[in-house]
Amino acid sequence: MGLKSSVLVLNRLWQAVNVVGGRRALALIYGGRGKAVDAEYAVYPWDLWMARSCQSHDEHWVTTTSGRIEVPRVIQLLEYDRVPRPRVRFSRSNVYLRDSHRCQYCGNREAASELTLDHVHPRSRGGRATWRNIVVSCFRCNARKADRRPEEAGMPLLREPRAPAWQAATLLRSGGSVDPMWQPFLGSRPG
Fold it and tell me: Least CB-packed of 5, 120, 173, 183 within 10 Å?
């Protein structure tokens, strides 16, 4: 793991703002722009983190000329106090995440290559590409629904589409896997 580990970055207010690699996280701590956060949520500047790393048995570590140092799972920035964007960017991959790769008509979960996006209110009738009008659909259901609204096709949605409340960027950068230590900072998750 080591330098390629994903590290959650918090602002001064303990809100998740980014995910960076282990190399960047250690550089931020070493440069005095951040502090490492341990499993008990105590914060450490570089010198104390180095001393703490000597006793650590964690598998996330690198060897330096000064000895072995643990790559933290979470860091807190010292001067960054901006609040993360409340809106999630509208994109195909984020719609797939929101709907958990599940067709919103039949409920089947498929690989992204077996899915498509469907306009609940058809484009030919003025429907736009928005969070509230786009859902994941399998090819079969999309063809069956065709140019109709779900109620006209007799195909009710599993759930009402809406903009997600989770931080998609954080989940996407981490490959969808989230360290349990991150959970208190991420809020709700998809699916």
Answer: 183
Question: Chain-wide mean pLDDT for the chain?
Answer: 86
Q: Where are the domains of the chain?
A: 2-84+168-186, 92-153
Strands (E), 29-150: 34-37, 43-44, 61-64, 67-70, 74-77, 115-119, 134-138
* CATH number for the domain formed by residue range(s) 92-153: 1.10.30.50
Q: In this predicted model, what pLDDT tens digit does every residue of 122-161 receive, in sequence order?
A: 999 999 999 999 999 999 999 999 999 999 999 999 999 9
**pTM (2 d.p.):** 0.57
- Residue with the bigger pLDDT between 62 and 113: it is 113
Structure tokens at 91: 């994109």
